């Protein structure tokens, strides 16, 4: 009690009100449901965007590194033209996506490209997935490039074709090398979905913000939202470090 | 090729490999035959093109011009399915190139299972047999990083053997090894030679060349300078460049 006497007035008052505040922000009118539903949306968007991002990223990374590795050795012909063209297309995709803010991309997706669609969740998944794919592509490509060319040659010398060598030998090792960077990308993606409110999608951040606008008290709803993000990220990081350890165990 | 008596296992005709549009001539017109059961050892100073030649034989290096016939098929032709032919040409690398994310056994069975359609049981039986031959049966479930250099190279050899190749290509197989491990790898190679395996070996191990080779090829500046029996090469070399080279390495 002695300690409390030293606290500034506003804090003391707030502490006295804490129970009342909690009820006002979360219990009254079932306002906690804004956050629960929002969390569901956030996780849904993140999960499917991650899947889309990995798919796009792996494909782009393989095409880009195939171009880097093989283009000088290729004979003239249709294959070479197609590969050069796809590679240029992917470079354009990477440059545009990585050179513009994700919020702007999200708004362009919703208000311009899919302006006829009412499905905000789907648009968000597409926008964040396409955005994440660009970063994942560069992460995976760096992983592929980090694998010694001898691994590739060993695979080819046994009779595996290019795709088989990639699938059985190069990608599994590359994936292990870039796991920390990939995990980081997904943590960033989870937090980036918090701008979904710009297209009126009620994700968790928007949910907290709605509560704030109803109750005129910002502290509790926003801190609750922050805490939930933090808990998810910590849980996910733990999971990744467990996976990393398991993958490493197999080697030493 | 109806006349089987004159068909060589590998036939290299006027092979050239240029870099930088001809500034660097790694191979400058190499013609060479390798017959079944032969052990051909390729020696020469570094940069003489011997590794490039060996790596051209299974098209890891794509030649600028010339042709390479393997079992009567031109492997440099765009129509040839090089993957099919590579299954019959095993390769052993200087740096082993075992797959670090797989156990020794997995390293050995992946190619026969995926490429030859062997079932797991069959492939493992063969792999374990071969492991026994190189005295590494107890390491089947180890990972490559747990092995010594000599052990890794012995595994690399039997991994290639799992595909039952018609020829084995060795690219400086002992150059990355500690001196005390060279012997164990050479012993495995000698056993293979004795069993009649066709081998092309790029090496600096002159003792091995003298003892095992059926033919020794001395290369310099992208060309074959001398091609002869080991007795003549090491006994009384007439060629000046070969003499200088041998004086340095022996």
Tell me about this structure.
The complex is a heterodimer of chains A (252) and B (250). With 252 residues, chain A is an all-alpha fold. Chain A contains ten helices and no strands. Chain B has 250 residues and is α/β, with parallel strands linked by helices. Chain B has helices spanning 50-57, 82-86, 104-115, 120-133, 149-161, 179-194, 206-212, 230-235, 240-249; strands at 10-19, 24-34, 39-43, 65-70, 73-74, 89-92, 167-171, 198-202, 215-220, 223-228.
Strand order of the largest sheet of chain B: 6-7-8-3-9-10
* Structural class by SSE content of chain A: mainly alpha
Distance between the termini of chain B: 42 Å
CATH architecture of chain A: Orthogonal Bundle
Number of domains of chain A: 1
What is the β-strand count of chain A? 0
Alpha plus pi helix count of chain A: 10
Q: Terminal Cα separation of chain A, in Å?
A: 57 Å
Number of strand elements of chain B: 10
Envelope shape of chain A: elongated
Give a short account of the largest sheet of chain B.
6 strands, mixed
Beta fraction of chain A: under 5%
Radius of gyration of chain A: 24 Å
CATH class of chain A: Mainly Alpha
Overall pLDDT confidence of chain A: 90
Question: Could you give a short description of this structure?
Answer:
Chain A has 252 residues and is mainly α. Helix content of chain A is 83%, strand content 0%.
Notable features of this structure?
heterodimer, A: 252 residues, mainly alpha, MetI-like fold, 83% helix, elongated, B: 250 residues, alpha/beta, six-stranded mixed beta sheet, four-stranded antiparallel beta sheet, 9 helices, 36% helix
Topology:
The complex is a heterodimer of chains A (252) and B (250).
Chain A: H1 2-6, H2 9-27, H3 32-70, H4 78-99, H5 102-113, H6 120-146, H7 149-158, H8 162-192, H9 204-215, H10 219-249
Helix pairs in contact in A: 3-4, 3-6, 3-8, 3-9, 4-6, 5-6, 6-8, 7-8, 8-10, 9-10
Chain B: E1 10-19, E2 24-34, E3 39-43, H1 50-57, E4 65-70, E5 73-74, H2 82-86, E6 89-92, H3 104-115, H4 120-133, H5 149-161, E7 167-171, H6 179-194, E8 198-202, H7 206-212, E9 215-220, E10 223-228, H8 230-235, H9 240-249
């Amino acid at each position: 009690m002695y300690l409390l006497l030293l606290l500034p007035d506003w804090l003391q008052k707030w502490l006295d009100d804490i129970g009342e505040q909690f009820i006002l922000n979360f219990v009254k009118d079932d306002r906690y449901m804004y956050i629960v539903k929002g969390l569901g949306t956030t996780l849904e968007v993140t999960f499917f965007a991650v899947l889309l991002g990995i798919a796009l990223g792996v494909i782009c990374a393989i095409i880009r590194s195939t171009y880097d590795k093989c283009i000088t050795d290729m004979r003239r012909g249709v294959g070479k033209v197609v590969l050069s063209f796809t590679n240029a297309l992917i470079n354009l995709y990477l440059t545009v996506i990585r050179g513009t803010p994700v919020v702007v991309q999200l708004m362009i997706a919703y208000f311009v490209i899919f302006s006829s669609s009412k499905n905000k969740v789907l648009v968000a998944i597409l926008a964040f997935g396409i955005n994440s794919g660009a970063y994942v592509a560069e992460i995976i490509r760096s992983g592929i490039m980090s694998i010694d060319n001898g691994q590739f040659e060993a695979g080819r010398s046994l009779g595996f074709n290019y795709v088989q060598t990639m699938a059985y030998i190069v990608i599994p090792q590359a994936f292990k090398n870039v796991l920390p960077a990939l995990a980081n990308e997904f943590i960033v993606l989870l937090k980036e979905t918090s701008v979904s409110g710009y297209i009126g999608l009620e994700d968790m951040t928007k949910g907290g913000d709605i509560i704030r606008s109803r109750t005129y008290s910002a502290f509790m709803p926003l801190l609750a939202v922050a805490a939930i993000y933090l808990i998810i990220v910590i849980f996910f990081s733990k999971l990744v470090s467990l996976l990393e350890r398991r993958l490493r165990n197999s080697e030493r | 090729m109806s006349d089987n008596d004159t068909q060589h296992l590998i036939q290299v005709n006027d092979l050239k490999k240029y870099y930088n549009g001809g500034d660097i001539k790694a191979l400058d017109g190499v013609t060479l035959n390798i017959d079944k059961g032969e052990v051909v050892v390729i020696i020469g100073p570094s940069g003489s093109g011997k590794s490039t030649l060996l790596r051209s034989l299974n098209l890891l290096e794509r030649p600028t011009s010339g042709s390479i016939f393997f079992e009567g098929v031109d492997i440099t032709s765009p129509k040839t399915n090089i993957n099919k032919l590579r299954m019959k040409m095993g390769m052993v690398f200087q740096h082993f190139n075992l797959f670090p994310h797989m156990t020794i056994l997995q390293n050995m069975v992946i190619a026969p299972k995926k490429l030859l359609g062997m079932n797991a049981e069959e492939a493992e039986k063969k792999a374990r047999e071969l492991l026994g031959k190189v005295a590494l049966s107890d390491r089947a479930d180890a990972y490559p990083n747990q092995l010594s250099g000599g052990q890794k190279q012995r595994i690399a050899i039997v991994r290639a053997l799992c595909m039952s190749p018609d020829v084995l290509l060795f690219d400086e197989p002992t150059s990355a090894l500690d001196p005390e491990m060279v012997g164990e790898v050479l012993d495995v190679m000698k056993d293979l030679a004795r069993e009649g395996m066709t081998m092309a070996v790029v090496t600096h191990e002159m003792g091995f060349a003298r003892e095992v080779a059926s033919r020794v090829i001395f290369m310099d500046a992208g060309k074959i300078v001398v091609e002869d029996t080991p007795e003549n090469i090491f006994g009384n070399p007439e060629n000046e460049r070969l003499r200088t080279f041998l004086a340095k390495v022996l």
